[in-house]
């Protein structure tokens, strides 16, 4: 498409653009400049704001209630999108979102098939349709794709951003383990829509995504982003090296029948532990208490995604 041709759907639209200028990928701010210019050339009014150390994007969503915005454009990583979603959901706003993923892992964007739009930002308008999808609720906050704890969870918020690109598949990281005593486990009970699980877990994730941190990947047939449910994956601590090797093989093959893996889809999860522990919520640190409730919020978000071809 010629970027100078008038694009009717944005003509006359008032658009709120929220940009993270220091997102993981180089060129994100340049992309924002290009898209902003294209939107204005096609008749849209654009109000652009950049995130800072003290404003992660959540506060800017208050402007949605003050102005008649037709759409929110978010250019940043999963953390920026998380901040915007929290700001909107806490204000009961469901303005359509166009997300251009400029982070380092972009699990949410990969699941929706929009990761390529950063390279050609006009396609985020010309080749998409708005779609309702679910979100997760963790305590009083929300997440777009995952709440996780345990092994390697700190990688998402404690390592330098450039190191995120080096993270491989979860199973291959486990493969480097030589000492099982180095694996910390969290004793936990979980009730998933009435089904009970109990164990000492080295990792846990509650997600609405095909991939988690670039390490774990689900089969596309096992995840529906609009079914009113989240997927739970809990990994128990192996007791022997043969157990560890079997677990690694199961993870590589997406085989959740291994005795060290508990998997379930549910709308509500209730967790109880003897002590609080740390979480990663969409890649950002969060403290957890003894009792935690994680819920799926049906149809929480309206987001632009590639059109589904009929027939």
Q: Would you kindly provide a written description of the structure presented here, covering whatever features stand out?
A:
- By secondary structure, the chain is of the alpha+beta class.
- The protein is 22% helix and 35% strand.
- It is built from 9 helices and 17 strands.
- The protein has helices at residues 28-41, 62-66, 78-90, 107-112, 123-126, 155-158, 161-164, 170-175, 241-252, and strands at 14-19, 45-50, 71-76, 97-101, 128-138, 141-143, 146-150, 186-192, 195-207, 211-212, 216-217, 230-236, 261-266, 268-273, 278-281, 284-287, 291-306.
- Strand 8 (186-192) and strand 9 (195-207) form a beta hairpin.
- It is elongated.
- The two termini are 24 Å apart.
Furnish the topology, listing elements before pairings.
Elements: E1 14-19, H1 28-41, E2 45-50, H2 62-66, E3 71-76, H3 78-90, E4 97-101, H4 107-112, H5 123-126, E5 128-138, E6 141-143, E7 146-150, H6 155-158, H7 161-164, H8 170-175, E8 186-192, E9 195-207, E10 211-212, E11 216-217, E12 230-236, H9 241-252, E13 261-266, E14 268-273, E15 278-281, E16 284-287, E17 291-306
């Amino acid at each position: 498409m010629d970027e100078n041709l008038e694009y009717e759907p944005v003509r006359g639209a008032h658009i709120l653009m929220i940009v993270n200028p220091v997102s993981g990928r180089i060129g994100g701010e340049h992309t924002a400049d290009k898209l902003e210019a294209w939107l204005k050339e096609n008749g849209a009014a654009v109000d652009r704001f950049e995130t800072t150390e003290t404003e992660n994007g959540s506060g800017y969503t208050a402007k949605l209630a003050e102005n008649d915005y037709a759409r929110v454009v978010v250019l940043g990583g999963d953390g920026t999108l998380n901040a915007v979603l929290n700001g909107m959901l806490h204000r009961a706003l469901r303005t359509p979102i166009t997300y251009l993923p400029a982070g380092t892992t972009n699990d949410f964007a990969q699941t929706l098939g929009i990761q390529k739009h950063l390279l050609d930002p006009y396609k985020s308008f010309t080749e998409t349709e708005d779609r309702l999808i679910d979100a997760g609720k963790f305590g009083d906050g929300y997440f777009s794709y995952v709440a996780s704890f345990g092994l390697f969870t700190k990688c998402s918020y404690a390592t330098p951003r450039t190191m995120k690109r080096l993270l491989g598949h979860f199973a291959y990281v486990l493969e480097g383990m030589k000492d099982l005593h180095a694996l910390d486990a969290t004793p936990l009970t979980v009730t998933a829509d009435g089904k009970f699980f109990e164990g000492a877990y080295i990792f846990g994730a509650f997600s609405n995504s095909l991939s988690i941190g670039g390490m774990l990947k689900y089969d596309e047939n096992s995840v529906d982003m609009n079914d009113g449910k989240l997927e739970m994956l809990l990994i128990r601590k192996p007791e022997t090296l043969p157990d560890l090797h079997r677990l690694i093989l199961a993870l590589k093959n997406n085989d959740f029948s291994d005795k060290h893996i508990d998997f379930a889809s549910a709308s509500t999860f209730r967790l109880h532990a003897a002590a609080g522990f740390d979480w990663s919520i969409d890649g950002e640190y969060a403290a957890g208490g003894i009792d935690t409730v994680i819920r799926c919020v049906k149809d929480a978000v309206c987001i632009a995604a590639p059109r589904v071809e009929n027939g």
